[in-house]
Amino acid sequence: MNARTTLPALALLSVLVGAVALAGGLAAGTATAQTANATADVSVDDQSGAASVVVESATLPDGGFVVVSNASGGVVGTSEYLEAGTYEDVTVEVSPELARSQVVIGQVYANNGTESFNASADPVYTNDNGQPIGDTAYVTVESTETATATATATATAEPTGTGASTETSGPGFGVATALVAIAGAALLARR
């Protein structure tokens, strides 16, 4: 790259990084304040499941909540109130259950004193740069196939006196197909 293309590329990269940082702050919720604390931390690993997300570890220096959001920033689950400390394998119930595989964001929030999570009142923990502390993970949701009913053939008794058997299993016309065939034959006969 020469100087003419490097400068615009760096400017574009700076704008993109700023936009991502702003979006990350907005996705963290609409908390009115942020709690800066370099010791707060959260770690979420890729996993599978639809009903809950397991946060590998979370450090909340002043207590608070572990919050899981979707990639759009919508809160999908919160932990119960946690006292100050470090926690491992925090299971956060997701409601409604995840319908598809997706990226989730784990974050730690301080408590505003009510010990009940409130996205607009509880501040997110931030790093020294003022960025929300969070970690992303990919949650795989196993698709469940719905069982469909299949028709089973039933044997019928052999007609008496003919010695021939009638098989009732195998391909054949259904009622709807037979009606379509009859209607088609009637139309052809009219020509």
Key features?
191 residues, alpha+beta, Immunoglobulin-like, five-stranded mixed beta sheet, three-stranded antiparallel beta sheet, 2 helices, 10 strands, 29% strand, elongated, PGF-CTERM sorting domain-containing protein
Q: Gap between N and C termini, in Å?
A: 75 Å
Which structural class fits the helix and strand makeup?
alpha+beta
How would the global form be characterised?
elongated
The CATH architecture of the domain at 29-140 can be named as Sandwich
Helix percent reads: 10-25%
The tally of beta strands, per DSSP, is: 10
> Which strand order do you get reading across the main beta sheet?
3-10-8-5-6
> Which segments are poorly predicted (pLDDT under 50) over 5 or more consecutive residues?
5-33, 146-152, 162-171
Order of helices and strands: HEEEEEEEEEEH
- The CATH class label of the domain at 29-140 is Mainly Beta
Q: Report the average pLDDT across residues.
A: 74
Number of helices in the DSSP assignment: 2
Annotated CATH topology of the domain at 29-140? Immunoglobulin-like
